[in-house]
């Protein structure tokens, strides 16, 4: 199955509820609502290290906040294709005004998909976010690559484990 990426803009996706189809402007592609098999929001987060350039970058640009959103997109699947409507392509501070605005746009598109495809229901965001096991694996990779120190790894690990027990 082919995955096609689309950079989000206000005109990137248009819904025609009368014709019951969505139109992906950049691809010049119409997709009947009935052909949509699933859709979900995917948000990937990370953290910035505390040493060297990462510390300078995060403290001057991000203040003391070390959590970033590395990507945010909607995945729309049909039988033959998968589309990624990309809202964030470069890391942004997770609590920034820009991320809040982008999240709002993402939620608006999700609301339109919920109207277009009511039989698919409103996907549970907890099912779409990476499991805490996946997050721990990614964290371990950052430790192994030397991006995080052991102390940073332990701190982040505690945070992930504490939030996964809700």
Q: Give the radius of gyration.
A: 18 Å
Q: Low-confidence runs (pLDDT<50, min 5 residues)? A: 51-65, 123-129
Can you count the helices? 5
Tell me what portion of residues adopts beta-strand conformation: 25-35%
Strand elements, count: 8
> What is the averaged pLDDT score?
77
What is the approximate shape?
elongated
Please give the domain count. 2
Which secondary-structure class do the elements indicate? alpha+beta
Largest sheet: 5 strands, mixed
Please give the oligomerization state of what you see: single chain
Distance linking N and C termini: 36 Å
Protein name: SHOCT domain-containing protein
What does this structure look like?
The protein has 166 residues and is of the alpha+beta class. It folds into two domains: 127 residues, no CATH class; 37 residues. 37% of the residues lie in helices and 30% in strands. Strands 1, 5, 6, 7 and 8 form a five-stranded mixed β-sheet that branches. A three-stranded antiparallel β-sheet has the order 2-3-4, covered by helices on one side. The longest helix is centred in the middle third of the chain and has 20 residues. 17% of the residues are buried. About 13% of the residues have low confidence.
Provide keyphrases for this structure.
single chain, 166 residues, alpha+beta, 2 domains, 5-stranded mixed beta sheet, 3-stranded antiparallel beta sheet, 8 strands, 37% helix, 30% strand, SHOCT domain-containing protein, SHOCT
């Amino acid at each position: 199955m082919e995955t096609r990426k689309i950079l989000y803009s206000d005109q990137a996706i248009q819904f025609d509820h009368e014709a019951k189809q969505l139109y992906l402007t950049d691809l010049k592609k119409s997709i009947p609502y009935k052909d949509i098999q699933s859709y979900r929001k995917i948000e990937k987060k990370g953290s910035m290290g505390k040493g060297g350039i990462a510390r300078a970058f995060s403290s001057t640009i991000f203040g003391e906040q070390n959590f970033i959103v590395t990507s945010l997109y909607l995945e729309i699947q049909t039988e033959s294709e998968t589309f990624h409507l990309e809202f964030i392509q470069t890391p942004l501070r997770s609590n920034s005004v820009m991320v809040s605005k982008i999240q709002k746009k993402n939620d608006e598109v999700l609301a339109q998909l919920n109207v277009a495809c009511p039989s698919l229901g409103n996907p549970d965001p907890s099912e779409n976010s990476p499991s805490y096991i996946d997050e721990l694996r990614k964290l371990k990779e950052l430790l192994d690559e030397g991006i995080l120190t052991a102390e940073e790894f332990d701190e982040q690990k505690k945070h992930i484990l504490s939030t996964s027990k809700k």
